[in-house]
């Protein structure tokens, strides 16, 4: 088994194990790991799609992406609950009301996930092997430097103004680039530069924390009958968002001027 086949096989098995868990319970850890697994699989098959344009990653990944998007709504509420408990100086009565609404939303979104899973008819993801796609490891490794460089340039090249949508796009591309590097970690001679990985992790953490607060604020503002209760929390989250983006700008600059991975 080649290094990429081994990576694909282990990743798919782990993702399916977590899918089985969350099909039976609202397990916060398994939900997170399932979503990470789908993102890693997405990065891998999109990478293969760059190597061979006959491969259609979106079609192959459609069931996985549908399930991930659905369960992400549960994950987002879990994150909102966690952030709400971290905010200081909020009246306990307002926090209690918001927590009650958030827990009800988790139940609603989880039922929607279960209904979607039932409609798909299977609780196991199936994705073709590299052999089934008629791709050799040598061909993939030959294309690797150019594909990674293109991904990196899309992250670091100045373009549109860095508004919420553009930061979110860069965050997704950064994760895709990182996951693509990870896919080759067991391939001899294809390790990533440790300094780049460190810069990337810092930038990912900042953008992840920023995005969590954007999503949490949106969720809290979605409760029409709790606008008064949610307003103080939304204000505090907005302050944190701006601080995190300020730091992200610094680390994006450092990442842009760092050494690319192998």
Summarize the structure.
It is built from 8 helices and no strands. The chain has 262 residues and is mainly alpha-helical.
Q: Would you identify the regions where 5 or more consecutive residues have pLDDT less than 50?
A: none
Mean pLDDT: 91
Structural class: mainly alpha
The CATH homologous superfamily corresponds to CHAD domain
The CATH architecture would be: Alpha solenoid
| Percent range of helical residues | over 70%
| Main sheet specs | none
As a percent range, the share of strand residues is under 5%
CATH topology title: CHAD domain
Shape: globular
Number of domains: 1
Order of helices and strands: HHHHHHHH
State Rg: 20 Å
State the distance separating the first and last CA atoms. Answer: 22 Å
Report on this structure:
It is a single chain. The protein contains 8 helices and no strands.
Q: Which features characterize this protein?
A:
mainly alpha, CHAD domain, 262 residues
Element layout with pairings:
Elements: H1 3-22, H2 28-51, H3 57-86, H4 92-120, H5 137-156, H6 164-183, H7 194-221, H8 227-256
């Amino acid at each position: 088994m080649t290094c990429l086949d081994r990576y694909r096989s282990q990743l798919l098995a782990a993702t399916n194990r977590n899918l089985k868990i969350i099909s039976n319970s609202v397990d916060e850890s398994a939900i997170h790991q399932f979503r990470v697994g789908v993102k890693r699989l997405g990065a891998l098959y999109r990478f293969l799609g760059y190597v061979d344009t006959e491969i259609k990653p979106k079609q192959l990944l459609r069931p996985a992406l549908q399930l991930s998007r659905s369960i992400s709504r549960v994950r987002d509420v879990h994150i909102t609950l966690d952030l709400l408990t971290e905010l200081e100086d909020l009246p306990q009565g307002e926090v209690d009301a918001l927590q009650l609404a958030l827990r009800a939303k988790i139940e609603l979104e989880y039922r929607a996930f279960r209904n979607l899973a039932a409609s798909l008819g299977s609780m196991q993801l199936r994705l073709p092997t590299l052999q089934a796609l008629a791709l050799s490891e040598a061909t993939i490794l030959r294309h690797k430097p150019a594909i990674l460089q293109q991904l990196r340039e899309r992250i670091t090249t100045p373009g549109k103004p860095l508004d919420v949508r553009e930061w979110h796009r860069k965050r997704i591309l950064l994760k895709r680039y990182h996951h693509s590097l990870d896919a080759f970690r067991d391939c001899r001679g294809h390790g990533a530069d440790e300094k780049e990985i460190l810069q990337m992790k810092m930038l990912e953490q900042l953008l992840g924390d920023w995005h969590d607060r954007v999503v949490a604020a949106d969720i809290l503002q979605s409760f029409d009958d709790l606008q008064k209760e949610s307003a103080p929390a939304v204000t505090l989250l907005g302050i944190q968002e701006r601080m995190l983006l300020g730091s992200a700008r610094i680390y994006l600059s450092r990442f842009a001027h760092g050494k690319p991975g192998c």
